[in-house]
Amino acid sequence: MINGSSPKCTVMKLFVSFAFIMSFFFVRSQSSYNEKIENNKYVYFAQGLFSIPESEISSIEEHLRNLPFLKVVRLDQYSKRFFILTENVESVTEDDLRSWFLNYGDKLKIVQIGLHGYDIVESFPFANAEH
């Protein structure tokens, strides 16, 4: 016993404290997510595989990074994988994504488009994509 408390009581206090802290973070993240939805400021992610000539990857990546509604752009020339995060857009469709890649839109194997913080991002290598 520590300070007259039984071990069972100490564990219960720790559990209640942990539960309180976790509920605080959950409510805080949920209100942030709801606020984004109410203000139509969505963050989407898109990922997949591309088949772009190595000589063109840098210029396409630079073009994508210059689009004001794209927050994060990653094109990996070795795995041929792309990952994009948007900001302040109402929706992202396959057609939108393909248009961002200019002449190489038809060279994409889009694996997933989802709402960041809500949808689960599939891990690489993708189970539902041919390499």
Name the descriptors:
131 residues, alpha+beta, Alpha-Beta Plaits, 4-stranded antiparallel β-sheet, 4 strands, elongated
Structural notes for this entry:
- The radius of gyration is 22 Å and the shape is elongated.
- It folds into two domains: 1-39; 44-115, Alpha-Beta Plaits (2-Layer Sandwich).
- Helix content is 39%, strand content 21%.
- The protein has helices at 7-38, 54-65, 94-100, and strands spanning 44-50, 70-76, 81-86, 108-115.
- It is α+β, with helices and mostly antiparallel strands and 131 residues long.
- The chain starts with 6 loop residues before the first helix and ends in a 16-residue tail after the last strand.
- It has three helices and four strands.
- The model is unreliable at 24-35 (pLDDT under 50).
- The protein has a four-stranded antiparallel sheet with strand order 2-3-1-4, covered by helices on one side.
What is the level 1 CATH name of the largest domain?
Alpha Beta
Element-by-element helix/strand order: HEHEEHE
Which structural class best describes the helix and strand composition?
alpha+beta
Q: Characterize the overall form.
A: elongated
Please state the average pLDDT score: 78
CATH architecture assignment name of the largest domain: 2-Layer Sandwich
What is Rg?
A: 22 Å
Number of H- or I-type helical stretches: 3
Uncertain segments are 24-35
CATH topology of the largest domain: Alpha-Beta Plaits
Between the first and last Cα atoms, what is the distance in angstroms?
A: 60 Å
How many domains? The number is: 2
The quaternary state of the protein chains shown equals single chain
